[in-house]
Amino acid sequence: MLASFENVTFGYDGVPTVENATFELNEGERTGFVGGNGEGKTTVLRLLLGQLSPDSGKIFVKNGIRIGYLEQTGGFTSDSTVYGAMKEVFAEDEELISRLGEAQSALGRASESEFPALSGRIEALTKRIAARDSYHYEVRIKTVLGGMGFEGVYDQKVDTMSGGERTKLKLCRLLLEEPDLLILDEPTNHLDLKTLFWLEEYLGSYKGALLIVSHDRYFLDRLTSRTLELERGRLSSYKGSYSRYKVLKEERYRDAVRAYERQQEEIGKLQTYVDRNIVRATTAKSALSRVNRLERMTLLEKPLPPPKPPRFVFETEETPYERVLEAKNFDLTADGKVLIRDASLTILRGERVALVGDNGTGKSTLLKFLLSRDRHVVFGRMAKPAYYDQENADLDPEARTLDAFWEDFPLLSQTDARKLLAQAGLFAEDMEKRVKELSGGMRAKLELARLEAQKGNILILDEPTNHLDLPAREALEEALSAYEGTLLFVSHDRRFIERLATAVLAIENGRLVRFDGSYPAYLAAKKLVAAPPVQVEREKKTDGYRSKEDRAREARRRTRTREIEMRMEALDAEEEAINVSLMNTADYREAQALTTRIGEIQTERETLYAEYEELI
Questions:
Q1: What 3-state class would DSSP assign to 185?
Q2: Half-sphere CA count of 468, side-chain side, radius 13 A
Q3: 3-class DSSP state for residue 9?
Q4: Which of 74, 126, 577, 578 has its CA 20 to 30 A from that of 11?
Q5: 3-class SS at 190?
């Protein structure tokens, strides 16, 4: 067991955030941690980390355990470069390799009397290096940085990067440190789809225990085998991933309701018998026995139903012509940089199109371009677009929440306005707050309520699930599934895309590529072909297809890369065999010869590695 809570209670201003919580985290366990926005998940994590002390109960953390914690806004700070900051994790490995090199050099000059001590030192250092896999730490750094999207920026200073990039670097550092318990609070924020898939694969083979707070259901389902839920201050544990937890929670609630109803029925029958028979001499004794049963009975609390999720309804007032949106032969630029070249797209009535691409490829910029009424863009007759902005830029931060909604829809009665906001999860106290006082989740719900009121027949959505908790995301999915209009949306939530998309628009290498089919089919096809045949043909004509010499050069590069990999593997094996011989030999002349060979191997490896870096 790595850590545990035993009847832990903690609250603020006398109001418990978590009450009588009991759970364990075990070695190698993979646990998802879910709960609505504001329920107190971060508070539980801070209690576990010792940053807060419980009001009552006990928290146990195993002595010597290494815990790594990624906060939602836990940007990494360092005056080093990206690569240098990651290399700091392996300072001990560098020191061990350096000390082994010094010992091996000394052995080459040693006298017979010095040989035993040096040989013992080399043996001990070799064992430690092998146990830590120290020789391959640079490969590990490049694997993690490359997978997380930092390839090509190794020399950039950490402190010059954005907050999102620094949070990703903090995650890189934690992955390289490999703590016994890795706590990740919304690790999928700031990650594009490509990086998400990589992170899942990497964490799938992680040796330590994982505790993951996430609104990404796909991520939780792939990685976790147990789910903790915090709801109304109570912490419950379910065996299984997120999807399994949903089923078990419903079953547990139904069982609790049935047990409560059976007990109430039994209590009613016992009480009725007592009331009728307690005063009769012939039946008073049996009535008293039933009174004793009632007094000994442990009364069950009436189960509270799960909190109601928000409710969204997207309606249309008019039906547009078949071609809802068309854009032809346009280039997309931002800050002087061409993001997409010579693109065209057509969206038909009723289609549900997901726009995907790596971070920075121009997804949000493209949506805004389509709404700008540029001469290249034509909305079909009777098309009425409505836009969801992930940055909520159209909201006045100083406005009262109710006014921020009502000012754009003055024909709505106050009753109808309040009803729409309440259905979205904004209640009386929230409506009186200023917009800037709302949480990210509350602002998202306000923006979605405004979207409902517009009654657009083509919804253009930029990351609508950002800041929404899991019940709200699922409610939004249900509403959009029932929507009869057209969708064009950007999202990093793969379950959301999977549920809604009937076609995919992908920004790939500066081009806009359409795939007609579901999102899972798109992913499957993407693994089989690099690009559609028509795209290859266009590149042939406009960008110049690779010449015979280019293809031959690429073939030579692949061949040489494989040759180097095989040679380095052979050198590693030879060095390992030599180290074993050094441990077993008593002849210092033989040891000197073996040491000399190790030096030659290390020199050759460095030369090969330098060439290898150039090739890859």
A1: strand
A2: 29
A3: strand
A4: 74
A5: coil
